[in-house]
TrEMBL record:
Keyword vocabulary terms for this entry: Membrane, Transmembrane, Transmembrane helix
Name recorded for this polypeptide: Zinc-ribbon domain-containing protein
Keyword Transport attached: no
Coiled-coil intervals, chain numbering: none
Taxonomy, superkingdom: Archaea
Key word Transmembrane present: yes
Transmembrane regions: 67-86, 92-109, 116-135
Residue ranges annotated for the Zinc-ribbon domain, each copy included: 11-31
Pfam families xrefs: Zn_Ribbon_1 (PF13240)
SUPFAM superfamilies (UniProt xref): Zinc beta-ribbon
Length: 137
């Protein structure tokens, strides 16, 4: 083989490893390779998308009533503490009220179940108050 010759490569559909054209199996994971490489199938007009395996499909999020949105509560509490410190020092009581208003807007937009938003707001306020007391903020 000459150095300036371009070698056609076939990519493994499972792991993406480059293999020489004509290889039957992937040299990395051992998956059976297509008879014709993608480039050849595309040029000849035989190209069609292969279906996605079931285990690789995106699974829908759980929408059970038992799942509470602690991520929104914790993020709301952290943002509230940071904004309270910054805006409270700059604007006093008006800054603290502004921080609470911003958290209300955040929770209402971030809550996946809007019916749980009042509880999430209360939990975020309580969590922020407890963390602030613990940290001495």
């Amino acid at each position: 083989m000459m150095l300036n010759e371009e070698v056609e490569m076939v990519y493994c559909p499972r792991c993406g490893e480059r293999n020489r054209e004509g290889s039957r199996f992937c040299r990395n994971c051992g998956t059976l390779l297509e008879e014709k490489p993608l480039k050849s199938r595309f040029i000849s007009g035989e190209f069609r998308e292969t279906p996605v395996r079931e285990d690789l499909r995106a699974k829908p999020r759980e929408t059970s009533r038992d799942v509470f949105e602690w991520d929104t509560v914790i993020m709301g509490a952290v943002i509230l503490m940071i904004l309270t410190v910054i805006l409270g020092r700059l604007m006093g009581l008006l800054g603290v009220l502004s921080a609470v208003l911003i958290i209300l807007i955040y929770v209402l937009s971030a809550a996946r179940r809007k019916s749980a938003a009042p509880l999430i707001i209360i939990m975020a306020l309580l969590t922020a108050a407890a963390a602030s007391a613990l940290l001495g903020i």
